[in-house]
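Appendix B. Raw example, untouched.
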Amino acid sequence: MEVPPEKDLDAQHLPPQAPERSTELSSELEDILCDKDVPLFRRLKKAAWVELKVLFQLAAPAIGVYMVAFGMSTSTQIMSGHLGNLELAAASLGNNGIQMFAYGILMGMGSAAETLCGQAYGAQKYEMLGIYLQRSTILLTGTGLLITLVYIFTKPILRLLGQSNEIASAAALFVHGLIPQIYAYAVNFPIQKFLQAQSIVLPSAIISLTTFLLHLVMSWALVYKAGFRLLGAALVLSLSSWIIAASQFVYIVTSPRCKQAWTGFSLQAFSGLPEFLKLSAASAVMICLESWYYQILLLLAGLLHNPKLALDSLSICFLIGGWIMVISIGFNAAISVRVGNELGAGHPKSAAFSVVVANLVSFSISLVAAIVVLALRHVISYAFTEGEDVAKAVSELCPLLAISLILNGVQPVLSGVAVGCGWQAFVAYVNVGCYYVVGIPLGSLLGFYFKLDAKGIWWGMIGGALMQTIILIWVTCRTDWNKEVINYLVGGKSDETVGEVGRKVKLLV
């Protein structure tokens, strides 16, 4: 019984000890929201307490996983930087350029498994989670073969983009050491979505943290003591990624919590690949268009009349914003699971309520972070550099950073709702329009023509992000959650008896 790929949504559900417990808690939330005998305020208060417990149990470990992943790449760059300026430039180009290209594509494609596994779990079709895991791994591995060609030809690509032969050669050496990491991503991203859909997130956080500590020791030993230098740093990063992927797979195979969802390898994973690829491609486009947007803005900053100051100040602000945005990304993962699970379980009120709670919590945290950034705007840059010119430039950009933080408190969560509902293709079109038709041209106009420099480029970024956020809010507010559940049930009628579908639909209309 297979949930149709085009309607499957990813969502993380409350942390169950067993699938039955998860379903029980989900039904409890729906029952609370539907109980008209209880006053509205008491209903909302009780429902909010239930949802907040579930949401934080999902979001907190997810935030930890993303922070560890960010920390591993950052520590690799720091260790490379202690080898020399050339090594730092090479590691920065490799990590922030080539590696992020692969990361964005594979993570985006992996969110198709997020959508499908979330709905299948909510519909209690547990055996399909393992099929979707294998299917996603097959497609991501195939995509990884194509990405490998980019890694192999890193040097001529960087030379074509204007990098010096020395930097291009060093960056190519670093990137070649990251080739094994491509296939670790191809395995790891589907596994993460498989576990998240079942609200099994704490093991991933523990595995990631343990591997991070091991990563630091291995990097020190291989880079400095064994003398492998830049290549050693890249190889350790690849090895650490494989340790995380392999450890999580061992957990899946051996844990009683996964015994219903993982029933072994199956030839069924090779069926339905075209439909799965369609959703995966839409997911990849949605993610990549957003991540590349910020890289393009940095490239534009490099063309300003004082590029070093512009790049330094923007990079510091983006780094601060990136660390804070990890929190919103954790809620993105949590809400995509929640929405997918609730739609799959036929709980429209719970799905809608989860969206509201997740957005309010993420927005509140981001608002506090924005206030702190504004309060520290005159000194915050000294954590990264001692330059007074950079400090002044960062201080002037901090109000724009605060605005971006507030927007980022809502936008990633709404994107998670889109993943949970399977709207990736629609959001991809929205991203094209908002970022590339509005944001980049507006930033170029303000930065270059009106001589606003880095501020102008950032105002363009805010304009694109604001438009995207408004559109996603409008679409989410207009969503008929009863209809979303009905569409899912009707779309999955081949998996249930006609009578069962009819019974559920009748309950909703």
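End of appendix B.
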